[in-house]
Design brief:
By secondary structure, this protein is α+β, with helices and mostly antiparallel strands. The N and C termini lie far apart (96 Å). The structure holds adenosine-5'-diphosphate (ADP). The site of adenosine-5'-diphosphate has 22 residues, from helix 10 and helix 12.
Length: 440
């Protein structure tokens, strides 16, 4: 028996003993009166606290413990402890639920939960933007009333969810491709996951285009080669024809070699880490080489000027930059008709340095400019081939420049000429004095 109960029984015993005493010493009627008063007080006390307990159970106030003597005090205290424990458990569950919601909101996938009638029970922000939904407004709405694309409705109704569905998004994602997959769970409920795969689709189609382009570029010289081989094998040829055919075949083989080499260069640039920033390139010296090469390529058919800031250098990979900048210079010569002028410059532009090649050549129509650095992109296919181009030069330039944190800018006017400039950030350019200081 615990102390509280012992006390309650003891108080009843005290009443009984006092009543007996009063009966024996005074009169039994006095004892009776005493018992009636004592029990009456107890009944009033208990009724008051029963009522108080009732109110408390009706509208519990956390943190407040009503005070009362004896067994009622104990009841209030225990009830308070129970309510506190229950309250903290509810808080814990609420916090877990909140964290769970936050985690799904942070997911890169869109999530929609559907009930057994395909009505929306919950969706995260990404799913809202993919499907153009409003989580609050569209709650309990049938999803196919909101996402009405026939392919989506069909997908949801077929109940075959092994594969995902690719469809156009809605609202602000109208232009994007969204992958949607449903996962059934529980009593005919569904979890719908969505992902924006626009970029993936784009790279996939770029990859397909690239393979098609490579095959096409190699097929042309290969067809010429095999045609001449066939002719040489089957027809009796004069020495002159034979030598001429062999020349053409050698040219086509060389062309294939150039394409394959450029492709290998591109693959290497994509796979390699960025060049270290320790090596300083003597840019004025590189410009002298580029100038000499341009003169050689032009064969005195153009005026070619060169101006270089003598103290300005760049940190990076010399062979890569030589090939990229050389490409810009050779393009200027190749796409400038006889008598034209080409200017190569290397100068300080305040917050970095600028390499530029300006020509008075054929120029480029504005709609082609944004696509020039795509692989195999040419403004005029036949002209590029005639001048020995592969259509990979500017793609290589773009990669090399990206690896040097530099950007390519193209200004051009059809029929008047072009300017290809490369801007190096200040972090990649160093003044000669700095090199001298380092050398000491
Ligand atoms: P290509 O090997 O065909 O020259 P590039 O990638 O170097 O390939 O250049 C892509 C295309 O950009 C060229 O086919 C040409 O049409 C155009 N282009 C590049 N440089 C010039 C220039 N200086 N003037 C005019 N067109 C140019």
């Amino acid at each position: 028996m615990n102390v509280i109960w012992a006390r309650a029984i003891a108080s009843l015993l005290v009443i009984a003993l006092v009543a007996l005493g009063l009966g024996a010493l005074i009169k039994p009627i006095v004892a009776m009166a005493f018992v009636v008063v004592a029990l009456g007080v107890q009944i009033v006390f208990n009724t008051f606290h029963t009522q108080r307990l009732w109110q408390l159970l009706d509208a519990p106030v956390y943190g407040e413990v009503p005070s009362a003597p004896g067994i009622w005090g104990e009841i209030y205290y225990r009830l308070h402890k129970l309510a506190k424990r229950w309250h903290s458990q509810v808080r814990q569950v609420e916090q877990q639920h909140q964290r769970f919601i936050q985690a799904i909101q942070a997911s890169p996938y869109g999530v929609v939960m559907l009930d057994d009638h395909n009505q929306i029970e919950w969706s995260n922000g990404i799913a809202e933007s993919h499907f153009g939904l409003d989580a609050k407004r569209d709650l309990r709405q049938h999803i196919t009333h909101l996402v009405r694309q026939p392919e989506f409705v069909r997908y949801l109704n077929t109940q075959r969810y092994d594969e995902d569905l690719h469809m156009r998004g809605m609202g602000e994602n109208r232009q994007n491709v969204i992958a949607v997959q449903a996962f059934p769970y529980g009593d005919n409920r569904k979890l719908i996951l969505t992902q924006d795969i626009t970029e993936l689709e784009r790279t996939d189609s770029m990859r397909r285009d690239f393979v098609a382009n490579v095959s096409h570029e190699l097929k042309t010289p290969l067809t010429v080669l095999s045609g001449f081989l066939e002719t040489m094998r089957e027809l009796p040829l004069s020495e002159g024809d034979r030598a001429r055919y062999l020349d053409i075949m050698a040219q086509q083989a060389a062309r294939m070699q150039v394409i394959v080499n450029d492709l290998l260069v591109l693959a290497k640039l994509e796979g390699d880490a960025k060049p270290p920033v320790e090596h300083m390139i003597d840019m004025p010296n590189m410009l002298r080489h580029l100038h000499d090469d341009a003169l050689g390529l032009s064969g005195d058919k153009h005026t070619i000027d060169m101006q270089a800031d003598p103290g300005l250098t760049v940190v990076g990979a010399e062979n890569e930059l030589m090939s990229a900048l050389g490409n810009l210079v050779s393009n200027a010569v190749r796409y400038t008709p006889e008598g034209g002028k080409i200017t190569i410059k290397w100068r300080d532009v305040g917050d970095g340095a600028m390499f530029s090649v300006t020509d008075t050549g054929i120029g480029i129509p504005p709609e082609h400019i944004p696509r020039l650095t795509e692989r195999f992109y040419r403004v005029d296919r036949s002209r590029s081939r005639d001048t020995g181009g592969t259509g990979l030069g500017l793609a290589i330039v773009k990669h090399v420049l990206q690896r040097h944190d530099a950007i390519l800018q193209v200004k051009s006017e059809e029929g008047r000429g072009s300017e290809f400039s490369v801007r190096f950030p200040a972090a990649r350019t160093v003044r000669n004095q700095a090199i001298a200081a380092k050398a000491v």
